[in-house]
């Protein structure tokens, strides 16, 4: 029953019915009205997709791994619409593309392995497009780096995701060692941990959404240890919302950059030594030097964005979410 969640992508017909839990306090039953819709994205116009060299039928999906192992490099493999249990390992340059609007849904055939693992000690270029990847279930009590992974990239692999949804997973995407991953116009929804990055990995996220989980992006943290190497992360026009913990957590070794990113309704937007420029303020800064929460502003973060440097924020009695402090305030 993940189709209700995916109706946010503009589906005009139903493939599935069921129940989706969005958060601890919100439940959606059925999927006939498109109830779950994230805020609108900025318009993005991708280049035309390359022609398919090989198009699989549903009956050929069980042989997909053998086909991937045997094809020439740079082959474009197209998958049909439908839901399939599969585990793929990609070790050469190629493209795997689903049907339009993410109607190709891949779930893990082996819950102990990623749905798709891209691994090569030598540089390869792998493009994944128009796919929905889902874990077998979500167990939010797992420890970061020890959860079941839905998509992994390791070694020297370069992976580009376009119009890919990763949903209902313990750990959505893992990027380790020297891998490079570019996430474009994609969605990570209802994963306990969205993207975990370690080693000397490079990750760029553009025009995408990461929503509803424990943490959105964790940089430099894996299996409870700070890893050697310098991870690099660039965020651009990306929205991270509904995280119960940190939307973005980074350790000092990480190098981060970006602009025009929106953080909404998270436990804390930025954790660790993260440049405040990565997040767009909830609202403009004012000249007011005293503010009261929630009388003047509904959240502590909104008040921090609005108050003038050196000002004072007073909290009325109540329970408040955490906030990112990036200016001198009291």
Coarse structural class:
mainly beta
Main sheet summary:
21 strands, parallel
CA radius of gyration is 20 Å
Q: Indicate the percent of residues in helices.
A: under 10%
Tally of helical runs = 3
Distance between the termini: 47 Å
Average of the residue pLDDT scores: 85
The total of beta strands comes to 27
SSE order, one letter for each helix or strand? HEEEHEEEEEEEEEEEEEEEEEEEEEEEHE
Please, what is the oligomeric state?
A: single chain
Low-confidence stretches: 4-36, 222-228
Strand content: 35-45%
Q: How would you describe the shape?
A: elongated
Describe the structure.
With 330 residues, this protein is mainly beta. The chain is built from three helices and 27 strands. The strands form four sheets. The protein has a 21-stranded parallel beta sheet that branches. A two-stranded antiparallel sheet has the order 1-2. Strand 3, helix 2 and strand 4 form a beta-alpha-beta unit. The N and C termini lie far apart (47 Å).
Task: Write a concise keyword list for the protein shown above.
330 residues, 27 strands
Can you give me a brief rundown of this structure?
This protein has 330 residues and is mainly beta.
Chain-wise SSE layout:
Blueprint: H1 3-6, E1 19-23, E2 26-29, E3 54-55, H2 64-70, E4 75-78, E5 82-86, E6 88-90, E7 94-97, E8 104-108, E9 116-134, E10 149-167, E11 171-175, E12 180-184, E13 187-189, E14 193-197, E15 202-206, E16 209-213, E17 215-219, E18 221-222, E19 225-226, E20 232-236, E21 239-243, E22 246-250, E23 255-259, E24 262-264, E25 268-271, E26 290-293, H3 300-306, E27 312-315
């Amino acid at each position: 029953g993940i189709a209700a969640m995916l109706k946010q992508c503009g589906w005009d017909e139903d493939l599935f019915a069921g129940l989706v839990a969005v958060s601890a306090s919100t439940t959606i039953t059925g999927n006939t009205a498109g109830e779950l819709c994230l805020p609108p994205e900025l318009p993005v116009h991708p280049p035309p997709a390359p022609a398919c060299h090989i198009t699989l039928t549903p009956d050929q999906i069980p042989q997909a791994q053998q086909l991937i192992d045997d094809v020439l490099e740079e082959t474009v493999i197209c998958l049909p619409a439908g839901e399939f249990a599969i585990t793929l390992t990609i070790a050469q340059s190629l493209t795997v593309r689903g049907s339009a609007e993410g109607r190709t849904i891949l779930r893990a055939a082996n819950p102990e392995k990623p749905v798709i693992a891209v691994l090569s000690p030598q540089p390869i270029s792998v493009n994944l497009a128009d796919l929905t990847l889902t874990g077998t279930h979500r167990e939010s009590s797992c420890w970061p780096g020890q959860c079941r992974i839905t998509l992994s990239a390791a070694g020297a692999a370069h992976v580009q995701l376009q119009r890919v949804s990763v949903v209902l997973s313990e750990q959505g995407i893992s990027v380790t060692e020297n891998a490079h991953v570019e996430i474009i116009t994609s969605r990570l929804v209802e994963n306990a941990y969205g993207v975990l990055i370690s080693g000397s990995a490079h990750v760029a996220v553009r025009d995408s959404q990461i929503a509803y989980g424990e943490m959105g992006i964790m940089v430099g943290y894996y299996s409870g240890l700070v890893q050697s190497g310098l991870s690099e992360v660039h965020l651009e026009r990306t929205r991270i919302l509904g995280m119960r913990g940190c939307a973005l957590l980074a350790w000092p070794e990480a190098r981060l950059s970006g602009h025009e990113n929106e953080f909404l309704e998270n436990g804390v937007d930025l954790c660790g030594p993260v440049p405040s420029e990565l997040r767009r303020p909830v609202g403009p800064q004012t000249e007011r030097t005293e503010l009261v929460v929630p009388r003047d502003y509904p959240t502590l973060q909104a008040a921090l964005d609005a108050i003038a440097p050196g000002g004072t924020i007073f909290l009325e009695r109540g329970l408040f979410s955490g906030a990112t402090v990036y200016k001198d305030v009291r």
